[in-house]
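Worked Example 4.2. Read the sequence first, then its structure tokens.
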Amino acid sequence: MKIIQIVLPALIVLFIMPGCKKYLAEEPLKQVSIQTADQLEDLINNATAFTYDGDNPSQAYSTDDTEIPLNAYALNPTVFSYPSLSYYTFSTSQVINQPSDGLWTGEYKKIFTANLILANLAQVTGTDSVKNVLRADAYFIRAYCYWNLANHYCLPYSAANAKSPGLPLKKTTDYTEPLNRATLKETYDFILADITAAQNTTQVDVDGKRPWRISKRGIDGFLSRFYLMQGDYDKCLQYANNALTTQTATLVDFHTIKAGVPVSYTNPATTLKYSELRNWTAVQHLYWKEFLYTRDSYTNTQVRCPSTGLRALYDTSNDLRYKWFMIPYGGRRFSIVNPVLFLYVVFDDGRYIPTGPTMAEMWLNKAEALARKGDMGGALQAVNTLRAQRMNTSAPLTAIDAADALTQILQERRREMPFSMRWFDIRRFSINDDPSDDVTVERTFYKIGDGAIDTTSTVDYKLAPGSSRYAVPINGFEISNSKNQIVQNSY
């Protein structure tokens, strides 16, 4: 299907301007004239404006899914950008001093558009049914963006953190609206209120032709994730079950994935074997059949280096996820011959991976919720529903008790969604009531300073449960552009 990419001309000017100042604090252009619901429809149908998280280095570099070998970096330092390494080493000052933050500006850009739609619905021409669907889409877009931002720039949600800094909550397009950070509880209350409003949509199931438009099943998928992150396993299970009633989205049988175009190198001879998905551009990967709501994480470097620990979790001879997505000798494309550098490649030559709610995530959410509630049999049945579509030959998980089942389900979750959900999971593990799932991310890398990497000495870096660095630093330019209304996280 052709992706509609019509944007009002005046809005194009607004959207290409960099910086939070442009998206949080600039008076909307007076010349913009929106008169019809069709114009608002065109904004939302510009799929690529809403489906990408922007460059998201926390997911790509800040978890134990990632490992950059020292000798690989030494062979070709240009492969690993300085901003990426700032996240890899859990820096604060280096992240603050980056020239921009694509995730922050990208999500607030979407929020601005959602607010623009909500502000104009009352006065545009069009049927009430069309307007109601647009209203639900706009509320959901805003909620999803704020949730994404909160789970990067704020501490994990818990009663203890409820009064900690949340986000600047832009509810209108008014440039005079304050930019002070709400509390974390106020931020989550606002997100939930928007989701409640979005549930009024008349679109029940996922629109197979426009999966980036919201539906009741897509909202169910998001709410299952929302409540899992808060440790409310009853509601997580309820919404996962609702989402799994979809008649549109489906689990993809990985046996049906075909080999893609191989790439060969000489001196020494090596052939990299990819799946067909590697060549999928937006026209294809936006329509991944597992999506309940289309969202992808983007990495402009195309470098996701799976760690030794992550790779060790796979049955390398039987797991089709390992076969198709873990690319040994992937470093050859960057002239890294030895060591053997793996790359994780899904869509569009490694640029994109799914992050929106999917059928796979729902089966994993259901399995985890059941395990944490003590239902070992139900938990294993749920996780094995997923594994049946992922393993070359039957290999169902078994467990001796619910605790063992939970451990195996969390490992399966990591195998299924590396570089996407792991950042969120590590955060929530750190504040739930179960210390057995806590994760400490440890790595040894060269000493990183402001603007430079010292390859003559190494440092042991650690991100431990309870760390204030679970809240990613807000870019310094965003703070100064807000005239210091936005307050930096404390470290």
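Now turn to a second chain, presented in exactly the same format:
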Amino acid sequence: MRAVVQRVLDAEVVIGATTVARIERPGLLVLLGVTHTDGPAEVVTLARKIWELRIMRGEHSARDLGAALLVVSQFTLYADTGKGRRPSWAAAAPAPVSGPVFDQFCAELEVLGAPVERGVFGADMAVRSINDGPVTILLEV
């Protein structure tokens, strides 16, 4: 499981002309990639790591501040660009596997107390954000 975590001032997901998810205060935008072997252990580990990661201003965590998270599924985090000019997506879990893991990840964050907004799994989305810092971290479990 991979995540790109960005500290943001605000962020939103738009489909067509409709905003489907938004955080309007400092928080985290989480782009989440799932591979074939990811399951409950990876979900719990990564959710806790992100919620408690001290990357907010003043060396606080999102947990310390009750900061909101916007989570967006991003299979392209598992792109293999080692050969040629066309990425391979073989390492990304297919939708029947990654969709439930994405839902479990969001649910685990909520169990930890995180206010969570979600992109729409599998949709063609516009993700808008204002990075804060900028702070962008790649995590993998």
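Notes for the reader: The mean pLDDT is 97. The beta strands are 2-15, 18-23, 27-33, 68-73, 116-118, 126-140.
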